[in-house]
Amino acid sequence: MADPWNYAGPVTQLGSGGGAVTLVDESTFAISGGAGDISVGAAQGLFFRDTRILSQFEVLVNGNRAEPLAAVTDDPFSATFVARGMPAPGRADSTLMIFRHRHVGQGMREEVVLRNFGDEATVCTVEVLVDADFADLFAVKEGRVGSDQRHGSVTTTVEERVSPEGGDGSLALTYNYSRGPVDRGVEIHAPGAKQVTPGLLTFEVVVPARGEWSTCVEVGPVIDGQVFAPKYLCGEPVERAMPSERLAAWRRQVPQVETDHPLLKQVVARSAEDLGALRIFDPDFPERVVVAAGAPWFMTVFGRDSLLTAWMALLVDPDLARGVLQTLARFQGTEVDPRHEEEPGRILHEMRFGDAASLSLGGGSIYYGTADATPLFVMLLGEMRRWGVARELVDELLPNAARAIEWIEHFGDADGDGYVEYHRATDRGLANQGWKDSWDGIRYGDGRVAEAPIALAEVQAYTYGAYLASAHFAFEAGDTATYDRFRSKAAHLKANFNRDFWLEEKGWFAVGLDADKKPIDSLTSNIGHCLWTGIVDEDKAHQVAQALVGPSMFSGWGLRTLSSDNGGYNPISYHCGSVWPHDTAIVAAGLARYGYDGAAQQLIFGLLDAASAQGGRLPELFSGLDRGELNVPVGYPTSCSPQAWSAASPLLCLRTLLRLDPWIPYGKTWLCPNLPEGIGYLKVEGIPLAGSRVTIEVGDQVPGGLSVSGLPPEIEVIREPRRPSTAV
After folding, report:
1. What percentage of residues in the chain have a pLDDT greater than 90?
2. Please, which of 83, 273, 356, 446 could form a disulfide with 567 given CB 3.0 to 4.6 Å?
């Protein structure tokens, strides 16, 4: 079987039925058609820790599929599917409606309700078709189920279960699957069923006139014989279940936005909601909150994705950054293992749970093949210090930051030229190990695909940021020698980068240096990340800004990953011309840092418009087709939605509009909002900063145009933007 992180083939479609509906809670998610059915043959199912525990779940009434009317997603983990039964012969309309209330969390609960609007009672046979193939998540995604699944044995058993409280019994259908080191299973409880056989639950019911009938089916995963109860149990109030309570608590603590620009408020609110849904809680460390990369295919911890998401989400919840840093530090590399590309000090790329025998994050398999997560780890730790939150935690993780720097200096810079390069250790690893990690993601201007080892522009920018963070850690500790060392390393890296990556004849930076240390000369969005960290010399920033917001890069909805003038450009490719919201948001923040607020706002409001055209949510990516061609953004077929760093992107955009840059240990906070004409008033209430909850209010009706409350009195508010020159 191919490695999940190294697949470059087609992806199975999610199926028909009125559009796919994805529900998610931690590492459990369900994909169904718009009618609620999980159908055989599509990339659908109920998944638990990277394994499909239901490959079919279809409801038939009197032998027929119902006619779908609506699908309402009540919360990220729940939905209601509404349909009507087939009309009786000779009648145009049916008097029977079917409601399916689904809740996902460590399994699934589904309440099926039949309502009869007729004047006579109606006799119905309700059948639920069920099956379980225990396919690996990526085998489902990539359409390989038929070729390499069910190499083990699936057995089914049916037995009667009696409630220990003496209530009604239920028939339980259990599927058990043996393959590899861990046995998988699923247990389906069907109270009130007349008959349960492998593949079928049957209910014989009479729905009274103007009345209703209901039943509730529970689906729980089984690992090595241990049954895990669903978080939502039949007969219990859904609002008391853990996912509901956690989401309610999250909503209470998220800062509130008030503005006369309704679209900004809508998109920021949706972002916060999606981030709340993508959180993962490790039962071994329940106080640590991490964020999964995205639904449906990446409901797991990713190094780069989780770090950048946590950075962008500092405006709403530093606990995400806290949990991400602690979790990644827990699994930081300790040995040289080419199979997983593990190296001492390296931060992981991806974690998977396929053969895990427990619910702990520590039970999964880990792949370390990424060049950027390690410097980003140090950068985020430094940003936590700048925000003045979790001081003790930052202190505890400083040894991990030191080990990360050691990886950068030795393994990352294997040839000793001062740049961090990547080259996979075996033929099973990722060929490209930056954020554009598809096989063809890094190209020359003529379209040729570059081959590793490659030193990416943005990886050097992140390394620059990691050196600066390390210098400031040393300064706070009074370690002058270490401070001078890292300050010097940052300065040398910046000088060399601006010499070796700069393409004078083109007016932009190379996306990377190839194996011969020659510039890879395509125009890409990567170079905007260099503005974000401040590694770009100010005398080059104007040309970079012009290149980034020119017509070959800015689609009107966001920033293309590759210029439309370059060879290899494809607006519906994964990394060679599509638009990624997180990428656009980071570049906008970089443009604003160098004083190009107009260009930054152009990108920000392109993203907001794109979100508005997609229900207020930004997906993982969408097409790079120009806005002048079509008045809606064209989706990418297998884009994750919700997806973590896309969900966090509007939060970084909000921070960019505020031009908020704290430096709490130095007693300073730069705050200089620059709102475009479309926003006359903006209030953000409850920003977690310096151990307090801070409110920022901006507008003509605000005295002085700006009001800040809740900030400790010893923190000076500097009402001017922070420039790159203040970094060192």
Report:
1. 67
2. 446
